[in-house]
Amino acid sequence: MRLHVHEIRLTDHDVWRSAREAIPVQPGVLVELSAGGRSGFGEASAFMTDRYNSSLDALHASLRSVAGTLRELPADDPEGAWEVLAPLLTGSPFALAALDVAAHDLAARLAGVPLWRRLGAAGAEPAGGDTAGPGALRSSYSIGLDEPGVMVRKLQERPGWPAYKVKLAAPGDLHILRALREHTDAPFYVDGNCGWEPAATAAALDAMAELGVTLLEQPFPREAWAEARELKKISPIPVYADESITGPHDLDACAEAFHGVNLKLMKAGGITPALRMLRAARAAGLGTMLGCMPESSAGVSATAHLGPFVDHLDADSIALLAVDTGTGVLLDAEGALTLPDAPGTGFVPAYDGPAFTVRPSAAGRAGQAGWDAEELSVHRDGTALASVRVRRRPLPGHAPADTFRQLDRTAAPGTEAVSPEELVALLRGAVTRAVADGADTVWLRADDESLREACRAAGFRTLAASGGTVRDGAPGGPPDLPSDRSPAAAPAGDGPLPDGDDPSPLMVWKANEPA
Predict the structure, then answer these.
(1) Local structure of 51: helix, strand or coil
(2) Distance CA 213, CA 215 (A)
(3) Which of 88, 82, 84, 42 is nearest to 62 (CA)?
(4) What stretches in the chain show pLDDT beneath 70?
(5) How far apart are CA 273 and CA 13, in angstroms?
(6) Using CA atoms, how far apart are residues 163 and 390, in angstroms rounded to an integer?
(7) What is the pTM of this model?
(8) Nearest residue to 284 (alpha-carbon basis) of 306, 242, 255, 309
(9) Among 92, 9, 88, CA closest to 49
C-alpha cells in the first residue's frame, strides 16, 4: 500500500467548548492508502496532543516511521496489517487509527462492498436475498458548553433529534438542563469531561434523573477510579467511560467502575481493536457507545459503518462543521444517518476545498522525467500560496540513488505571502511524501533566512558550502561532504545540478535523526 498524507484544518459553526477546553480551529491529517487503483481514507486530529502524542509533527513522524512497512503489506488484509503496525506505533494511537481505518476502507473498496458489509454488520434481507444495509441509525446531537441562551439556541436549531448530549462545566448547572428541557422531550446525555467533583456529582444525581438525563459520561478524571466505582454504586443514571477507556487493558477496570463505555476509533487505535473491545465490553455486561473526536466526514463515515455494533451512536461532529474535508455519510436534520451506496466508507475528499492546507497540487508535473507524480501545495481558505516539487536527485557529492529527494519551492503568483507556519507545514508534508516514496534523505537550497528557519522547524539541518566542501552547520554532524563544485557532483535527475556559484546553503533532512 502506498501512503499519502494531507494536512487539514476543521472549523465549526461555533467555537466548541467543554469543561476542559475551547477549540476554535482543529488541525489534523487525512491519511490515504492506495493500491490497485483505489484509495482508502482515515483521519487523525491534532487533539489533546500531550496525552495522545498527536501533534502534527508527531503524527507525521509516526506515519513516516511505518511508510516502508506499509509498502510491503497487502491491501486486502487490514486486520493483518494492524497486527504488524500496532507494535510499531504503540505511542501514537491516532496515527495507528488513521492507518487502520484507511486500510479497512481500501479493502472494502477493492472488494466492491460497503464497509459495514465487510465487517459483518447485520442488515435487512430484501426479496432478492442480498443484504440491503444496516437498520435505522440515529445519532445524538452535542451541545457544547456556552452561555445558557446560546445552548438553548443550538438546541432550537436542531429540533427532533433522538437525544441531546450536553456539556456541563459542573453538576450543579441544573439551570441549563431546565432551560433546555423547556424545548424538547428527548433524553439528555450529560458529559462532564473529567471536570466534576464527586460530592457535588452525587448531590445532583436525582435532580438530573428528574430532568430526563439518561446517560452520564465521564464526570471524573481518568485516574479517579475509586470515585468512579463509588458513583456506579449510587447513580440512578448509567455512567459511561470516555477518557477512562483508551484500550483493551482498561476494560476490566471500566467494568467495575462504569455501566458502559464510549469508544472512539482514534483513541482505540482503529476499527480492528475497536470491534474487539466492543465484543469484550458486551461480554462484560457493559453498554456501548461510539463517539467522535473533532473530525470530518472522513472519520465519521467510518464510525457510522460500525453503528450496528453499539447501543448508542454519537456521530454528529459533521453537523457542527462549517468546513468539511469532503462528503460521505449523510446526517439529516433530525439525526438520521444514511450510509453511502458505495464501496468502503463512501467518503469522497474535496481536495480543492478550504479544509485542506497541504495537499497535492493541481499543477503537479506527472510524467516528466525525474519528478514524482505529485506536487504539493500549501493553501489558505482554498487558495494555493506556495508549492514544492519532490525531485529524484542526489545530495551534491553523492552518487544517484532512489533514497534521495530534492525539494524545489515556488510561490504562487499574485497571492498573499506564505506564513512561517504554512511554510513549515508545506515542508513537513513534502518530507512525508518523499519518505512514503522510499527516500531517507531530503534536501533543498534555502536562499533566505525565513526559509532556513522553516526548514529547521521541519527537522532539517544546515550544510554550508565552504572551501570546496559542504560542511555540516550543526555540531556533531556527519563528516564533510564534497560540495557541488566537486566533479563528483555529476548531473542527475531531470536537469543539471547547480553550478556551484549559488551561495545558498543546503538544508538536509535525514531519517532517524532527531529534529
Answers:
(1) helix
(2) 6
(3) 88
(4) 14-23, 122-135, 362-373, 411-416, 464-503, 514-515
(5) 32
(6) 49
(7) 0.88
(8) 255
(9) 92
Question: Which three three-digit cell numbers place residue 164?
Answer: 441531546
pLDDT digits (tens, 9 = 90+) for 185-241: 999 999 998 999 999 999 999 999 999 999 999 999 999 999 999 999 999 999 999
Q: Helix (H) and strand (E) counts for the chain? A: 17, 26
Say if residue 515 is exposed, middle or buried (CB neighbours under 10 Å; 0-12, 13-18, 19+): exposed
Q: Which amino acid is at 352?
A: D
Residue 513: exposed, middle, or buried by beta-carbon count in 10 A (0-12, 13-18, 19+)?
middle
Residue 267 near residue 52, CB atoms below 8 Å: yes
Residues 294 and 318: beta-carbon distance below 8 Å: no
Q: How far apart are CA 347 and CA 22, in angstroms?
A: 28
Q: Which phi and psi (to 5°) does residue 171 adopt?
A: -65, -20
As to burial, measured by CB atoms within 10 angstroms (0-12 exposed, 13-18 middle, 19+ buried), residue 280 is middle
The DSSP call for residue 249 is G
**Angle, helix 271-283 to helix 78-85, in steps of 10 degrees:** 90
Alpha helices in 112-146 (DSSP H): 115-118
pLDDT tens digits, one per residue of 181-194: 999 999 999 999 89
